[in-house]
Amino acid sequence: MGCTAADVVAALRAATAVVQEHRDELVRLDQAIGDADHGENMKRGFTALLSRLDGEDLTTPGKVLKMVATTLISTVGGAAGPLYGTAFLRASAAVGDAAELDCEAVARALQAALDGVVARGKAVVGDKTMVDALTPAVAAASSVNGSVAAVLSAAADAAAEGAESTVPMVARKGRASYLGERSAGHLDPGARSTALLLRAFADAARGEGAAT
Amino acid sequence: MGCTAADVVAALRAATAVVQEHRDELVRLDQAIGDADHGENMKRGFTALLSRLDGEDLTTPGKVLKMVATTLISTVGGAAGPLYGTAFLRASAAVGDAAELDCEAVARALQAALDGVVARGKAVVGDKTMVDALTPAVAAASSVNGSVAAVLSAAADAAAEGAESTVPMVARKGRASYLGERSAGHLDPGARSTALLLRAFADAARGEGAAT
Amino acid sequence: MKKIINDPETVVQDALRGMQAAHPDLLSVHYDPAVVVRADAPVQGKVAIISGGGSGHEPLHGGFVGRGMLDAACPGAVFTSPTPDQVLDAVSRCDGGAGALLIVKNYTGDVLNFETAGELAESEVRSVVIDDDVAVKDSLYTAGRRGVGGTVLLEKIVGAAAERGDDLAACVALSERVIASVRSMGLALTSCTVPHVGSPSFELADDEMEIGIGIHGEPGRQRVPVGTASEMVSALLTPIVEDLPFEAGDRVLLFTNSMGGTPLIELYLAHGIAEQLLADRGITVERRLVGPYITSLEMQGMSLTLLRLDDEMIELWDAPVHTPALRWGV
Amino acid sequence: MKKIINDPETVVQDALRGMQAAHPDLLSVHYDPAVVVRADAPVQGKVAIISGGGSGHEPLHGGFVGRGMLDAACPGAVFTSPTPDQVLDAVSRCDGGAGALLIVKNYTGDVLNFETAGELAESEVRSVVIDDDVAVKDSLYTAGRRGVGGTVLLEKIVGAAAERGDDLAACVALSERVIASVRSMGLALTSCTVPHVGSPSFELADDEMEIGIGIHGEPGRQRVPVGTASEMVSALLTPIVEDLPFEAGDRVLLFTNSMGGTPLIELYLAHGIAEQLLADRGITVERRLVGPYITSLEMQGMSLTLLRLDDEMIELWDAPVHTPALRWGV
Ligand SMILES: Nc1ncnc2c1ncn2[C@@H]1O[C@H](COP(=O)(O)OP(=O)(O)O)[C@@H](O)[C@H]1O
Ligand SMILES: Nc1ncnc2c1ncn2[C@@H]1O[C@H](COP(=O)(O)OP(=O)(O)O)[C@@H](O)[C@H]1O
Ligand SMILES: [Mg+2]
Ligand SMILES: [Mg+2]
Ligand SMILES: [Mg+2]
Ligand SMILES: [Mg+2]
């Protein structure tokens, strides 16, 4: 029922595919209220990641997550790079050396990721950032008690809703904040990418864990 | 029956109005096969000229024509400035100190103008320049024996036809020559302005000389 | 999209190759990670001045690498801040034992990436954040003011200070003084097109302009009908002057900048108007810079930057500089 | 038409005012007739180097006025050659007793107006005509090749010769040598819009470019689909190299020029490709110039210029220059 390093790697492969598929959508969202690079940044980072997912030393989920962190930090750039990088770094620390992650470990990792993003970016719910997707996802994850797949699925649902909730918001953090009122009426690209990643993880976990 | 300094001034006033009216047309013609300034150059020159037509020292046709030459040379620029300037300078020399010009003097002045343009610009008939308008004008002028108005009217008719004849030509002088074959199918702007000027002079002469 | 490029994926790297070819005596360009380094780095005993940011603002920052200005520049992807490993690489190549100053434009991405690098660096590293764009309200409700044209002036002045031997603390203090004295604002007549996007970042009608733009093709504060040059200059200069505020008797450096696609004839024209407006207010223009120095790809438009000068800043501005984009005294 | 101007009628004069304001130490601008003169003119005993042409090509020529380059520039209306009285005025302001050399780009209008001035001048005046554009066939059926990018290199090199004290005959001979050794060609991705016209000089579709353009918004020799940067550079460089011809072992100056609206990131990218293509042919790039130096208003596009160098040209190229647009060694 737990989630191994190989499961995490599989989830990341799935996430890479999703990021590549949604590259143009994320660019368009960022074009409306930012500088039109979020999709390209994420694609660059996850494409670099893909080439490292065969690494021999990826023996625990924690090691995989740490490799994700350093890869994203050194390839994504922009605001998203350090924020997602910190998220994965904190998640890695939260799961330690465990060979398998149970649903509590996954929830703990998500909470650590959110804490990291907030520590770095100082955004709160309502600022129209990825925090608006990640915060409800963490809450949902810790309220579910079941399989890893169930936890991630709840998180993904909540993140999707959280992302949608950014549409009417006036941005107070990041580049979109320069637009003031003109930022309202648009989906935040980082919130959208957070929701996409969590959905990819959840789908991968369901695929893996369907039998357990 | 002769043409006084005042008549020449009146003809130039008429020419200025015509140049200003046709400024956009000349710009468009030059845009097609040149650098889109001929109308503006001519307008600048004739507008400067207008402010000098009240000069007290304009006591003979020759003095008026010389003032036109120096004004155009110092205000038109481009190829047209020195060419029209030389034309008026040579015309001025050709008419000398005469107080009135008869039709022969006018024909002589036109011939001198043409010679000046050819000496400066080295164009021959068929090169797609103002020479294609001026050459037939001079020929027509010297073949008519009548009033100044009749001479100028014949010259203007011939110049108009000469200008039209430039349409199919491939330019061999001036900026349009850079286009090679692409210059064919367009009216030469300098030929057109020459025809316009002669028409204005002819109309002015007919107005003045109708009773004589 | 019409651009002189081979492939949107490699545009930054390809341009860096051309830069290296064009300035073999001034620069060493490294590609993985991408860093543009002064040819004689590290300069022993000198504070290393390092900046960086997204590409697409050329000559900023790579064009300011060289004696009397930057020791290194870290070019990110187009309009994307560089990553911490670029900054770390720059620090390790340039630290001559006196530490490094990171000049960071105030954008969340730039701040976070440079901050991460600063935490990881083994050298003594300080950073300063420039935020001179008066178009953005500096409130709790934004990420703060953006760093724009003032960056060029800051890099020149603090670069000269480091070159004469000022230590890291002095460079930081001078930077803070410059940042406190400089204000900018820009406008766009046309959008720009990011190579990896392929379509214009925003749409402007034939009779509209965007006032208060940044340098990343973000829309500005306000879309208004295109006016005369005098109206445009005054729309930029008035908020700049009133913000600091600049006052009669002040001595200033006036920097008239093209966003990339506006030609010099228009820029000089605008500069002349700005000088006149400042003279009318009793403000003395002591130094000036006119040209495309901090750009947004091929965007047509301009920005104005005003720096209140003191004697030391003037001396440092006049000090020799030898970089691809700014050169005097050598 | 979107431009930073007040009035198409006064754009040249207004830009000159801004230029004067921007460079009070270098230039004296006179307005009637319009002439941009080196601040310390006339320089006694030095040959005066004077050029001019239509406006809209900035920084050419006014931006090259100053020590080591031009003594004066005569700016015509936009894309219109100046009038003889401007040239005469420049000659009389700059003649320091050693005569004046007029550098004329080969266009009928420029040639005729400078010729007229030469005839009327009281000083000793010689002129040279530069015609480096290989896009134009030099035949009886054209006005000859146009003067384009090579003009910048000629003005720098002969300006340095005059500054070191070469006499008028030597300046003429050197000019002829440079003119015989320099070739250029350009392309446009977009048209430009002349202020007094208000609409683009030619129309290009979104996927077309114009090869073999001049600098006045004239259409070029050929309209072709937009290619990659490598294709563009090779479309310009091949005819240039084959024309002189430039051969393996030649030492050259490579000048990569923006037509005004092409930003530096693309220009560097193109420059890098050109350096590679020349290296492939065994031609050694010894000096380079990259930037917008001879432009067509806001046109996007580029030109390449290649000058075959000898030792004296290199020495003169490297000699100090202090002008608004080119500066080194001082
Ligand atoms: N301070 C912040 N805290 C959390 N998330 C942020 C913050 N600033 C920006 N973001 C997120 O980053 C996203 C933009 O990422 P990206 O476009 O890659 O970087 P940049 O804004 O530097 O171009 C935004 O949509 C937002 O979700
Ligand atoms: N060598 C020449 N001889 C006679 N006329 C010429 C010659 N070269 C150009 N022209 C005339 O000048 C006209 C162009 O004038 P204008 O546009 O004012 O100058 P420019 O060509 O310098 O822009 C042409 O249409 C042509 O009639
Ligand atoms: Mg972005
Ligand atoms: Mg013309
Ligand atoms: Mg970005
Ligand atoms: Mg012209």
TrEMBL record, chains A, B:
Entry EC no(s): 2.7.1.121
Stretches that traverse the bilayer: none
Keywords: Kinase, Transferase
Cited SMART domains: Dak2
Keyword Transferase carried by entry: yes
Chain's gene name: dhaL
Signal peptide region: none
Gene Ontology terms, MF aspect: phosphoenolpyruvate-glycerone phosphotransferase activity
Segments forming domain DhaL: 6-203
Pfam families, per database record: Dak2
Name of this chain's protein: Dihydroxyacetone kinase subunit DhaL
SUPFAM superfamilies with a match to the protein in the record: DhaL-like
InterPro entries in the record: DhaK_L_YcgS (IPR012737), DhaL_dom (IPR004007), DhaL_dom_sf (IPR036117), Dihydroxyacetone_Kinase (IPR050861)
Species of the source: Lentzea rhizosphaerae
UniProtKB/TrEMBL annotation, chains C, D:
Gene3D superfamilies in UniProt: Dihydroxyacetone kinase, domain 1 (3.40.50.10440), Dihydroxyacetone kinase, domain 2 (3.30.1180.20)
Domain DhaK: 7-328
One Pfam family hit: Dak1
Signal peptide: none
Domain of life per record: Bacteria
EC identifiers of the protein: 2.7.1.121
Gene Ontology MF annotations: phosphoenolpyruvate-glycerone phosphotransferase activity
InterPro entries referenced in this protein's UniProt entry, alphabetically: DhaK_1, DhaK_dom, Dihydroxyacetone_Kinase
Record's keyword terms, sorted: Kinase, Transferase
NCBIfam families on file: dhaK1
Protein name: Dihydroxyacetone kinase subunit DhaK
Organism in which the protein naturally occurs: Lentzea rhizosphaerae
Gene encoding the protein: dhaK
